[in-house]
Design brief:
18 helices, 5% strand, 72% helix
């Protein structure tokens, strides 16, 4: 695993002494005391540097490690052992330094180191540019002399390209100094440094000013110094620590073309599977809704049929009763009418008259009520017959819809099964290819068999390359637990890897065994 200590190993003893002096002297208390007088901080750093003058490289390397541990302890909640491995310390330093610039914590340590390098360098250049804008005439002359000296020591071809880009009438220390101090952006300043190096400036003063500037922006000073250490180490290693894409098992020169062509089948199948899943759920939901409607309609129909039967029976009983009262009342009607003919003068005191009249009126009322009831029953029968007919029609329509939906469901289920079969075949083939690649390239990691198919199904080829970069760093690290962000439900370690914008891989593992890989926040 490539670490910042690989970068430090390429630095001179003097450069390592400078790093130790910075780590020892750039503390929050010193910075707060000397916030207005940065020159005093510089003197403290120089004094500390001089104290290290006679020390051997092994001692310096050990002191650098201890100072980095001390800085990490100042900002980390977790305890750090004195015998922590260089690989684990590298991960801790990079993790804390990345927070200065709010770099995504789920990028690989190598990616974070490179991004810290770029972000710190941009910050350093801005601070440097501000300082140049405030320099005295004497300081300007000194800078011009440093640039002139660098011109004589730099590569002639690089100088020619730089001169062409700067488009100066004269290419010397003064014209270059004026050009880089007059521009608002740091682009040209960076190009000058790329050709002539940072030796034209007072590097230590720039580092101190950058750290102080970070503190003034409410950034933890310890993290700002750690960011400087990462920047220095990455510079020493060769500008980049991130493992190149072309070293990844799944990388190929035609990666973009593969995503557009070879992966097209798998992506289409996955997309179609999702569409069919949605369609099948919709069809089943619609069928369930219609089945419920059938139950309701059949209940209403059964109720109406029963009511219709009862009403018809009641109508028959009413007609029978009407015939009975008419038959039974015929004598009452005749007796009343005969009495009226034989007794032209009625006397209410006549008991027989009063009785016959009452019996006749009761008969007439019963007949009238019976006729009204018969009319009402006829209306109810007509309404119920109409309702029953409507229920039959609606049931027929619902059953026709159900029949159509069931036929559509059968067709979609058939297609779904075909898609699943093709998907499993395609994913299975790709999983076998990935399995062979990973077993060949990763020397210490072991993968559960189900992982390969999940990875090829839910990550694109380019995302797999990003995932492999994290696995590669884990594979080459002796302290794999340092990558974990948390512990899982079963006590397993969990690490996250950013594979795309807003998309992460969740890696569940224990020691060298990778147990599960899934999309973060989504159980597969």
């Amino acid at each position: 695993m490539v670490t910042i200590f690989d970068g430090f190993a390429k630095l001179s003893d003097d450069e390592i002494r400078g790093q130790i002096a910075l780590l020892k002297c750039m503390t929050l208390s010193n910075a707060m005391k000397e916030v207005v007088q940065l020159a005093n901080v510089r003197r403290m750093v120089d004094a500390s540097y001089n104290e290290l003058e006679e020390l051997e490289r092994d001692t310096l390397d050990d002191m650098l490690k201890q100072e980095l541990i001390r800085k990490c302890q100042a900002v980390s909640v977790a305890a750090i052992k004195e015998d922590v491995s260089l690989e684990e310390l590298h991960i801790l330093v990079v993790r804390e330094a990345a927070r200065v610039y709010m770099i995504d914590d789920d990028k690989t340590p190598g990616q974070k180191a490179d991004e810290i390098h770029d972000r710190y360098y941009e910050h350093y250049l801005k601070v440097l540019q501000r300082k140049m804008g405030k320099m005295t005439e004497k300081e300007n002359e000194r800078l011009e002399m440093q640039i002139q000296k660098a011109i004589t020591q730099s590569n002639i071809e690089d100088l020619r390209r730089l001169a062409a880009e700067m488009m100066l009438r004269e290419f010397n220390g003064k014209t270059i100094r004026i050009r880089i101090t007059s521009e608002k952006s740091t682009t040209m300043l960076k190009k000058v440094i790329d050709v002539m190096g940072l030796r034209i400036f007072d590097g230590m003063e720039g580092v101190i000013s950058t750290a102080n500037d970070s503190m003034m922006m409410f950034c933890r000073l310890e993290r700002a110094i750690l960011a400087e250490c990462v920047w220095t180490a990455v510079n020493g290693y060769g500008k980049r620590m991130r493992i190149p894409d072309d070293l990844m098992p799944s990388y190929s020169n035609g990666l973009l073309q593969e995503e557009n062509e070879k992966e097209k089948i798998l992506l289409i199948l996955i997309s179609r599977e999702e569409q069919l899943n949605k369609t099948l759920r919709s069809l089943l939901s619609e069928i369930d809704k219609l089945n419920k409607q059938v139950v309701i309609k059949e209940g209403v129909l059964e109720r109406d049929l029963k009511k219709l039967e009862e009403t018809r029976k009641e109508q028959e009983d009413t007609i029978t009763y009407k015939e009975k009262i008419l038959s039974d009342g015929e004598n009452t009607k005749k007796a009343y009418e005969e009495y009226l003919r034989s007794h032209p003068v009625k006397n209410n005191s006549d008991l027989e008259y009063r009785k016959l009249k009452q019996d006749y009126e009761n008969l007439a009322r019963d007949v009238r009520n019976n006729e009204l009831k018969t009319i009402s029953l006829e209306k109810n029968i007509s309404r119920l017959e109409e309702s029953v007919e409507n229920q039959h029609k609606q049931l027929e329509q619902i059953n026709q819809s159900l029949s159509g939906l069931r036929e559509e469901l059968v067709l979609h289920v058939q297609e779904f099964n075909e898609v699943i079969t093709n998907l499993e075949n395609e994913a299975g083939y790709r999983a076998q290819v990935l399995k062979r690649k990973w077993e060949t390239h990763f020397k210490t990691l072991l993968f559960d068999g189900k992982i390969y198919e999940i990875v090829v199904k839910y990550f694109t080829q380019r995302e797999i390359v990003s995932l492999e970069r994290m696995l590669w760093e884990m594979d080459t690290c002796s302290t794999k637990g340092a990558f974990a962000s948390k512990k899982g439900k079963n006590g397993n370690l969990v690490a996250f890897c950013m594979v795309n914008t807003g998309k992460y891989a969740e890696i569940v593992y224990e020691d060298c065994q990778i147990i599960e890989i899934k999309v973060k926040g989504r159980q597969l």
